[in-house]
Amino acid sequence: MPSEQPAGPLPERPGGPEAQRSGGAADSGQAGSDAAVEPHPSAFEIGHPSVLGVSRLSRLPYLSPAAEALYRRIARLAELGPESEFLLAPSARGLTTRFLADVSGASGAGVDPNAELTADATERARVANLSGRLHFDVAPIVDLPYQDDIFDFAMGELGLGASGDPAAAVSELVRVVKPMGNVALLQLVWTRQLDDALRESLVRMLGLRPMLLVEWKQMLRDAGVVGLQVEDLTDAAAAPQQPLLGIAGLVDFYSLRDRFSVLWRAWRRWGWGGVWEAVLHGNEVRRLIARERMLGLAFIRGTKWRGSGDRRSGTRSETTKPASPNERGP
User: How many CB atoms lie within 10 A of CB 254?
Assistant: First the structure.
């Protein structure tokens, strides 16, 4: 289990588009500090090379066997089926969204702030003949373009840690899920105490901000999620073969061709310095997880309690967001 001990105090951090359609072990940890976490700038569009930035250059068309096994299990845990609707955010090129829809028969949506990645996800869904069951929207993940209480399941993928305000992103995920629906996070967590300078250096390298396990859990509780269960996936993430972090392309690329294509795009975006940093960053993340054990990977899930609303600003009016297709009249 990833540690819930503080990795040093978190530093202070400076402070929706309309959608076309919408579609372990029992938790026993105690809440961390009650102090509010100040939002930090979104890392999605930061100009310097990072592990997340490089991963979002990959156009790999398939998941690893380890990732497929995990998402099949997620579909079972969320009880997804042909009558279900789910949401993944951020969705990048929609690889995991398409796989989850394919194995469960459910309808799904993906949200990402990057228009190019979203367009690519939409095109890939069309080619796979999934356009009738999948759609992708461009929007900040802290302001999802959907009404309240419409999805049966929502999950925050690894890139959620790059949002400017992870607590707001978690709250939005919960807001759009039906009461007694399932909510999950697949996130990096700090597992050791780190001084401020080292932690911020790692955040810059990753392009996203891991949190303490207790902090991710508290965000879910604050948004109205109960019955939290946590699984430690760190060993799978650090596996020498088929590392689980590849599910979001965060560390590993599974073919020489994909690796070179990513480095080519990194060179076009950041120059030779960016290519060199991208290679070093990937090796460093492996070391931090496998040998140093500074980072872990946690899968956290729970149930949205009846009557839970948007804890940031109150439950939104039904008129502020477009209805899902199942809620519209003929």
Answer: 17
Q: What is the pTM of this model?
A: 0.76
Spatial CB neighbours of 116, under 8 Å, sequence gap ≥ 6: none
Task: Mention every residue, 6+ apart, whose C-beta is less than 8 A from residue 144.
Answer: 16, 87, 89, 111, 172, 173, 175, 176
The tens-digit pLDDT sequence of the chain (330 residues) is 554 544 433 333 333 323 333 333 333 333 333 333 334 445 555 566 677 776 666 666 667 788 889 999 999 999 999 999 999 999 988 999 999 999 999 999 999 999 999 999 999 999 999 999 999 999 999 999 999 999 999 999 988 998 889 999 999 999 999 999 999 999 999 998 888 998 888 888 888 899 999 999 999 999 999 999 999 998 887 777 676 766 444 555 545 566 666 667 666 776 777 677 666 666 677 778 877 888 999 999 999 998 665 444 444 433 233 334 343 333
- Cα 212 to Cα 193, 234, 295, 320: the distances in Å are 10, 14, 10, 34
Three-state secondary structure readout of the chain: CCCCCCCCCCCCCCCCCCCCCCCCEECCCCCCCCCCCCCCCCCCCCCCCCHHHHHCCCCCCCCCHHHHHHHHHHHHHCCCCCCCEEEEECCCCCHHHHHHHHHHCCEEEEEECCHHHHHHHHHHHHHCCCCCCEEEEECCCCCCCCCCCCEEEEEECHHHHHCCCHHHHHHHHHHCEEEEEEEEEEEEEECCCCCHHHHHHHHHHHCCCCECHHHHHHHHHHCCEEEEEEEECHHHHCCCCCCHHHHHCCCCCCCHHHHHHHHHHHHHHHHHHHHHHHHHHHHHHHHHHHCCCCEEEEEEEEEECCCCCCCCCCCCCCCCCCCCHHHCCC
If one counts every other C-beta atom within 10 angstroms of the C-beta of residue 175, the result is 26
